Structures are given as structure tokens and as C-alpha cells.
Amino acid sequence: MFDGGASYDIDTLLAPGSGLTIKSASAINDLGQIGGEGCDTAGNCYAVLLSPVPEPTTWGMWLAGVGVIGCLARRRHAAGLSG
Question: Where is the Ice-binding protein C-terminal domain (predicted)?
Fold first, then answer.
């Protein structure tokens, strides 16, 4: 796989212990998903769709946003009950 002119081994991007080895990658879409063929430790090969997982900081920002929205909704609801 190439990204910004750098080459990457897709197998190193798989979850540890997945038991898969990527045999070939044939397509990538705008979401960063990679389609190809992967084989398990028994030698059985399957069509695979590899989807990127957001970085931990992305999840942190998402959770912070949900927390802020929750606080605002709670304040709005409390103001409506008292008035």
C-alpha cells in the first residue's frame, strides 16, 4: 500500500492476533477501505474488506462533543422544568 509516496505492508496494519495474512489488495475507496484477498492460518482464503479505525484522539474528541451536547441538553431540559 502507498500513502504519500511511502510504502506500507498491509499485514502490519491488521489487528494483532487476527490470524489473517493479506494475499492481495485490489481496490481502495474514498473511505479508505481496502478490498482484497486474505488467508487464515489454515490456508483458507477469503475476500476481505479492511476498514480504517479512527485514532484514539478522534474517539476522544467525539466523546467530548457528545458530553458537551449532553450537558447542554440537560441544562435546557432543567430550565424548561423550572420555568
Answer: 52-76
Listing from the earlier edge strand, what are the strands of the sheet with 34-39?
21-28, 34-39, 45-50
- Residues 59 and 47 both lie in one domain: no
- Residue 7, domain extent: 1-52
Report phi then psi at 54, rounded to 5: -60, 150
Residues 8 and 43 in one domain: yes
Q: Are 38 and 45 in contact (CB under 8 A)?
A: yes
Q: In sequence order, what are the beta bridge partners of 33?
A: none
- What would the pLDDT profile of 34-68 be if each residue is shown by its tens digit? 899 999 999 999 998 888 876 667 667 777 778 87
